[in-house]
Design brief:
Elements: E1 26-31, E2 37-43, H1 54-78, E3 82-88, H2 111-121, E4 126-127, H3 128-132, E5 141-143, E6 156-158, E7 161-165, E8 169-176, E9 188-194
Parallel strand pairs: 2-3
Antiparallel strand pairs: 1-2, 3-7, 4-7, 5-6, 8-9
Length: about 200
């Protein structure tokens, strides 16, 4: 979808090879007519260690996404537009965002993946959940991979779904609903206060 800024969205980005998620990563952006807001939806590549050259392909994905977001945020600042990046980013940013049995070399926990996440934060984006809950352990996904081999529990939970916002959005509240559903991911609900430029009142002479 096109944005109202002078930038085109990144098209669906496919990776070669087979992935256990049976999905291709993608990145889309869209706007709303009634509020100055751009929402970017991101499904990042799952860094499956069983897929050949997957880490290189993940690097390629971010090599496309980061410059695009950098330009988008620059234009958004110029036009006083808010930006939210949401989706399955596939990374637990720190050890606080995963259960203790997580393998540090497992998908979503590696230093390389966490560096990719930090590259998003360094663009000036704020992790809404961690901003509002700096010490809380809560997770958005649970799976039977990525556990330490000596762990009696081979299920690992991680916070890999995120809402990141720029400085013109103030996080108000966020909740992760961990009730069992048809999905292996938990829904996230957030309330955000979005800056809206004041309209100039016309003068009557």
């Amino acid at each position: 979808m096109a944005t109202k800024l002078d930038a085109d969205p990144i098209p669906v980005y496919g990776l070669t090879g087979q992935d256990a998620t049976n999905q291709t990563p993608r990145f889309m952006s869209w706007t709303f007519e009634d509020i100055p807001l751009i929402v970017c939806g991101m499904y990042a590549p799952f860094n499956n260690p069983d897929v050949r050259n997957r880490s290189e392909e993940v690097n390629t994905f971010y090599a496309d996404v980061i410059p695009y977001l950098q330009q988008l945020l620059k234009l958004a600042k110029r036009d006083k537009t808010s930006v939210a990046l949401v989706g399955d980013i596939q990374v637990a940013p720190t050890t606080l965002d995963e259960t203790d049995n997580a393998d540090p070399n497992g998908p979503g926990s590696t230093e390389s993946e966490r560096n990719h996440f930090q590259s998003l934060i360094k663009l000036g984006l704020t992790d809404v959940f961690r901003h509002l809950h700096p010490d809380t352990r809560q997770y958005t996904a649970r799976a039977r991979y990525g556990a330490k081999t000596d762990s009696p529990n081979q299920y690992v939970s991680k916070r890999i779904d995120h809402i990141l916002v720029n400085s013109t959005i103030e996080p108000v509240s966020i909740t992760i609903d961990n009730k069992p559903t048809f999905s292996d991911h938990s829904p996230i609900t957030a309330t955000l206060s979005i800056f809206q430029p004041k309209q100039k009142t016309p003068r009557l002479n």
